[in-house]
Design brief:
With 339 residues, the protein is α/β, with parallel strands linked by helices. The chain has two domains: 181 residues, NAD(P)-binding Rossmann-like Domain (Rossmann fold); 126 residues, UDP-galactose 4-epimerase, domain 1, CATH 3.90.25. The protein is built from twelve helices and 14 strands. The strands form four sheets. A seven-stranded parallel sheet has the order 3-2-1-4-5-7-11, sandwiched between helices. Helix 3 packs parallel to helix 4. 41% of the residues are buried.
Length: 339
């Protein structure tokens, strides 16, 4: 197949890029060019920012036609409107990467299917994804635009270890606290269920939808079948680090109230990670027979920890977050001592 990816070097799309090239597909990328050294050989790269220099990027595309166009960096309805305009008549399939955070919050049923209603009053990011999906389904119903929607949940790779409460510079600051024997903040009591998916597993499910006629006009979620509590997740991270897990439990609503607004804990926690969810991926498995996520979290996180330890560029310090953690813990402890 001849496939165009908008993005291609992120956590999810990098694995898809590698697998498509390895399978011999003709792969084109529209990418800003910040991480081209990581791209495999054989890609036809169009360097440019389609969000800010649309005319320049479109000129480089020329009159090329594609079997599939995959949008990984579409976050706003205006970006989807642009894609519908640009790729109508130029692709047999348009795949939009949405988000499982779009599902109804607060959760009405912890078992999530593609039929679960979409609504998230806590997170603008999710509401924008919902609006993008609505535009695509309208274009499909009214004009036959060949849209497929994919909803990932928490997908991770070797470059970052997934945790629920971290600052804007990523999870290394949490791992560093663990290594130093400090307490780490866990939202709630750590008992809510969550699903983590290794990016190479996700990529196999995603690629199975490309060129798949049953995927047109449909939405699919792609996740592992493994559901873990956040206590299990953090304990597994600590085990991979070879340290003791010292949790400090704080309610999600309190964390949302006392964190800097730009960290958006209201969205990330109340609108996403604080909710117990179990995903039913039977629809994907019917469309992509044989799909199964094979990487357990304990396996993936050991690989990620080893990779980050050997690559200092991913050990990004976040002193502001570290100070904030200590302040939250000290404030709660001082309040407790007054009673």
């Amino acid at each position: 197949m001849k496939i165009l990816i908008i993005g291609g070097t992120g956590t999810i799309s990098s694995a898809i890029t590698r697998q498509l090239v390895a399978a011999g597909h003709e792969l084109w990328l529209i990418n800003r060019g910040n991480r081209t050294a990581e791209l495999p050989d054989g890609i036809k790269l169009i360097t440019g920012d389609i969000n800010n220099r649309e005319d320049e990027v479109v000129a480089k595309l020329g009159n090329e036609q594609f079997d599939a166009v995959c949008e990984f960096i579409g976050f706003l309805p205006s970006q989807v409107e642009r894609d519908i305009r640009l790729f109508t008549g130029r692709t047999k399939q348009y795949v939009f990467v949405s988000s499982a955070s779009a599902y109804n919050k607060p959760v009405r049923n912890h078992v999530i299917t593609e039929g679960t209603s979409l609504a998230n009053p806590y997170w603008e990011y999710s509401r924008n994804k919902i609006a993008c999906e609505e535009l695509l389904m309208k274009a499909y119903r009214e004009n036959g635009f060949p849209a497929t929607i994919v909803r990932p949940s928490h997908t991770y790779c070797e470059r970052a270890v997934p945790v629920s409460v971290h600052g804007p510079k990523g999870s290394w600051s949490v791992l560093k606290r663990m290594i130093e024997g400090k307490q780490v903040i866990v939202h709630g009591d750590g008992s809510s269920l969550w699903t983590l998916t290794w990016n190479e597993d996700f990529a196999r499910g995603f690629i199975g939808l490309l060129g798949n006629p049953t995927a047109i006009g449909e939405a699919f979620q792609i996740m592992s079948d493994e559901s873990l509590t956040w206590n299990q997740i953090y304990q597994t991270v600590a085990d991979a680090l070879g340290v003791e897990f010292k949790p400090y439990y704080v309610s999600s609503s309190y964390l949302a109230q006392v964190s800097p607004r730009e960290w958006d804990f209201e969205g990330n926690l109340l609108g996403d990670k604080a909710c117990t969810v179990v995903f039913d991926c039977s629809k994907l498995k019917r469309a992509v027979p044989g799909f199964c996520a094979t990487t357990r979290f304990d396996q993936g996180v050991r690989h990620a920890v080893a990779y980050i330890k050997s690559h200092p560029e991913f050990q990004i310090e976040d002193p502001e977050f570290d100070i904030w953690c200590d302040k939250v813990i000290d404030t709660i402890e001082n309040t407790r001592q007054q009673f």
